[in-house]
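**Protein record**
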Amino acid sequence: MGSFHAMINSMVHVVMYFYYGLSAAGPAFQKYLWWKKHITAIQLAQFVIVSIHISQYYFMPSCQYQFPIFIHLIWIYGTIFFILFSNFWYQSYTKGKRLPRVAPQAAQHNGSSIYENGTVTNGKVKTN
């Protein structure tokens, strides 16, 4: 029972790192990254599930746990992270401060990508 939260956390991280892998693969994969908001929703669900799962030990006195301090720590972990990620959700998606931006179209000129706000050469931006 003590490894349940680790299993859920591992599954969520597989999804997260798949997303990060796609995003690191370059601009050609940007069209596949529409589901960023859903990752946060999955993480919020993870913290609710972990907190509810570990809470059963508070209501079932017959359940024995080898290290009772971990029950409290796991519950605190799930609750605090739920609060933090809820704030992230609110700031990012409700208030709209972190909504995905559409990448400006680049034109190729002498091996450099030229954007509306400047030139990118070897990963460095030079503003016009």
Q: What stands out?
A: Strands lie at 107-109, 112-115, 118-121, 124-127. The chain has a mean pLDDT of 80. Residues 4-97 form one domain. The chain is about 55% helix and 10% strand.
